[in-house]
Structure formats: C-alpha cells, structure tokens
Amino acid sequence: MSEGEGCPYRAVAIIPAAGQGKRMGAERPKQFLELKGKSILAVTLEAFERAKGICGIVVVVPAQEVAFCEEQIVKRFGLSKVVAVVPGGKRRQDSVRIGLEAAGSDYGLVAVHDGVRPFVNPEFIDKLLSEAAIKGAVVAAVPATDTVKEVDQAGHITKTYDRQKLWLAQTPQVFPYEVLLKAHQRALREGWDEATDDAFLVEQMGVNVTLIEGSPLNIKVTTPSDLILARAIMENW
Q1: What are the residues whose beta carbons fall under 8 Å from the beta carbon of 56, sequence distance 6 or more?
Q2: Domain segments of the chain: what residues?
C-alpha cells in the first residue's frame, strides 16, 4: 500500500458480496449475474479500481465462490487493487467485520460498498473520501420521494413521516478505519443484531455521520425487477 500521490487518504474499500440472493430466485448468487458480459460484482469492483483515492480492496464472498472470484473476476479483469478475497459470515455485518480484519490496520479510511450496487461513479467515491477526510464519517443517500407510512401488524397506518426530513441511505459509506472496526467489535461483543448498514453501528458509538447526496441510479440489485432495471441502466452506462 502506498501513501503517495495516488493514495492520499490511505483508504481501503470493503465490498460485502457474501449473500445468497434468495429473493432473486436465480441459480447463482445475484452478485455473479451478468450485465453485458460482466458480473454485477465485477462492474462494482471496476469502479473502485478506478477511484484514485482507493489504495486497496477487500472482497467478501460466499466461501464456495472465493476461487471463482479470484480467477474469473479479479484476475480476468485485472483488478490490481484487490488485496484479498475472503469468505463471508452469516450476516452482512459479520462479512464487513471479516473484511475489516482481513484489510489490517494500515489504512486511515474505509469505504464500505454493497457488491450489488454496480452503478457507483469513481469520482463520487473520491468525493466521499475527501469529505470523510474532513468530516470523519459520511454516507451516500438520496432524498425520499415517496411518502413513508408506519403500520402495525394488522396493516393499519399508525404514523406518517415528514418526507422532507427523510433520506434513503445507500453505499458507499466512509469512516475512519479504527472507528468502524471498534463499532463492529462492540456490536459483536454486545449482541447488536441485524444492523442494516454500517452507519447505524457508528451512530450507536455516538459518532456524528453526515449524509452526502448520491444518485438514484446507484441501485441495489436484489430482486428480478432490480435486475431488469440494472440491465437497462447498463446499456447507457
């Protein structure tokens, strides 16, 4: 890892892609489905390969897919910044923690990004890194455009939220490496289960997290309808 001009923030990217993709209903995990001849994961990783501020990349995949990822994605597409491909855990937060531990402590910043969000712009990654270098913890997000309702178990509306105050969190999410590692270690120690994103864990540590407006194209490919949309976006990407 270099601290020179090409790596000003000593930043590592952790790419959790260890899910089985049951909601997609495909034969393979969704991260390995293709968009114009490249897997979704490969498209995602190429964005971080091109981001100037990223020094290294740790990819977290299902244990049975490690060799495939190393040979058919990392080597095939010349992803030289990938420093490790490691098997993930049962939950997303387990996989991120495993990725953090595999990266080691030589990094200043860590960017966590879902392996199935392929339409992230390298320039936007660098923008988040520069913001995190100043503000400490930043998260990509987009303003809510629909009205959000809270319901009870019977499906009755119990609350309507003020849309102007609501944002939808995305990834990348960027933090000081030590802050995120400590948050994950505390979550494991104290049994904080099912954190849906890393910002939640950092917030629980009392750290302020700043939202940076992202792009509505930065979709997470989870369902068959998401895949249709992703393939349409890819045609003009």
Answers
A1: 1, 12, 13, 81, 82, 83, 103, 107
A2: 11-234
The answer to whether the Cα torsion of 57, 60, 61, 64 is positive or negative is positive
Asked if residue 172 has a cis previous peptide bond (ω within 30° of 0), the answer is: yes
Distance between CA atoms of 9 and 116, rounded to whole angstroms? 25
70, two tokens: 């190393």
Whole-angstrom distance, CA of residue 41 vs CA of residue 3 = 27
| Tens-place pLDDT, residues 175-193 | 999 999 999 999 999 998 8
Question: Looking at this protein, which amino acid is placed at residue 62?
Answer: P
Per-residue pLDDT of 192-218, as tens digits, reads: 887 889 999 999 999 999 999 999 999
CA proximity to 171, closest of 16, 12, 28? 16
Question: How many CB atoms sit inside 10 A of residue 156's CB?
Answer: 9
Fold of the 11-234 domain:
Spore Coat Polysaccharide Biosynthesis Protein SpsA; Chain A (3.90.550)
Q: Residue 13: phi, psi to the nearest 5? A: -105, 130
pLDDT digits 0-9 by tens, 118-171: 999 999 999 999 999 999 999 999 999 999 999 999 999 999 999 999 999 999
Q: What is the pTM of this model?
A: 0.94
- For 14-48, the pLDDT digits (tens) are 999 998 766 676 678 889 999 999 999 999 999 99
